[in-house]
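Appendix C: a fully annotated inverse folding record. The material below is reproduced so that readers can follow the format used throughout the book. The structure is listed first as tokens, followed by the designed sequence.
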């Protein structure tokens, strides 16, 4: 029996030989992150390859899914070059158009990005990645080489799933998602939530619009969740900062009803604004107002 009942149904779908190792991991603090040291322990203890382990853990990642519209649960696990595993799951926002959806792959990759990962090596998913996600993965540093791991299918690099792919290079960009330089938006504030939102904006990825943007959400217990915009060469698969933050909040097991403040920071140099998009997403889960700073 796990401490956190969120994971009990998922654990029943994982090979029982892994239960003794996973039960201590799946406590109240588990947010879908397994650091390299623990990954290595799991591999050694259970004589597994990393690919087999990632597939075996997919039910845990899928347990974070919130498909409020489709009811279709998708989980993804990203392995980055430092050896950590980052889980993600799809998130759909009630009452909003379908383009407000976060796909499982986007959730896992943004999870890795928020924790400082620089290079995606492999990603395991319980369903074949949609075209939108193939394009999203192609935006990451050396993304065409990312290995795609699916149940009952040969492992293959993204370039096999996305032949003749369109990439940032086609638009003359040399930076890529997970590997971009921070910008330097400034504002004098001692408010931890505003400082967190500025930091998120400074580490966001907006090579196409120049609209560097970050969101910070404060919970009733003062925990802060942040999100950054992750633009895409094909524009439409871009991931919005409020959606990145809500996805992180969702993985943590917090309730959106416990958000007490929300801040959006964006660059004044951008060719667009994310204010309406952020407000719509926020208001699908809570009635609180959005504080908006343009720097
Ligand atoms: Zn997708």
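Designed amino acids, in order:
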């Amino acid at each position: 029996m796990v401490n956190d009942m969120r994971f009990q149904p998922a654990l029943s779908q994982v090979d029982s030989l892994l239960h003794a190792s996973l039960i201590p991991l799946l406590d109240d603090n588990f947010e879908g992150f397994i650091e390299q040291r623990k990954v290595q322990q799991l591999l050694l203890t259970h004589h597994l390859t990393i690919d087999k382990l990632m597939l075996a853990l997919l039910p845990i990642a899928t347990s974070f899914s919130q498909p409020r519209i489709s009811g279709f649960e998708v989980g993804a696990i990203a392995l980055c070059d430092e050896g950590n595993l980052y889980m993600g799951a799809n998130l759909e926002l009630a009452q909003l158009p379908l383009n407000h959806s976060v796909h499982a792959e986007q959730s896992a990759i943004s999870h890795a990005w928020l924790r400082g990962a620089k290079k995606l090596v492999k990603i395991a998913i319980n369903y074949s990645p949609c075209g939108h996600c193939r394009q999203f993965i192609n935006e990451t540093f050396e993304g065409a080489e990312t290995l795609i791991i699916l149940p009952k299918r040969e492992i293959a690099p993204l370039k096999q799933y996305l032949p003749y792919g369109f990439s940032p290079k086609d638009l003359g960009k040399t930076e890529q998602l997970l590997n971009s330089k921070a910008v330097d938006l400034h504002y004098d504030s001692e408010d931890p939530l505003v400082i967190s939102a500025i930091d998120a904006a400074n580490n966001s990825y907006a090579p196409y619009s120049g609209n560097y943007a970050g969101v910070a959400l404060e919970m009733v217990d003062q925990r802060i969740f942040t999100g950054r915009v992750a633009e895409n060469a094909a524009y439409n698969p871009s991931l919005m900062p409020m959606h990145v933050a809500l996805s992180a909040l969702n993985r943590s097991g917090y309730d959106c009803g416990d958000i007490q403040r929300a801040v959006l920071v964006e660059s004044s140099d951008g060719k667009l604004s994310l204010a309406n998009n952020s407000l719509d997403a926020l208001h699908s889960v809570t009635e609180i107002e959005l504080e908006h700073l343009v720097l």
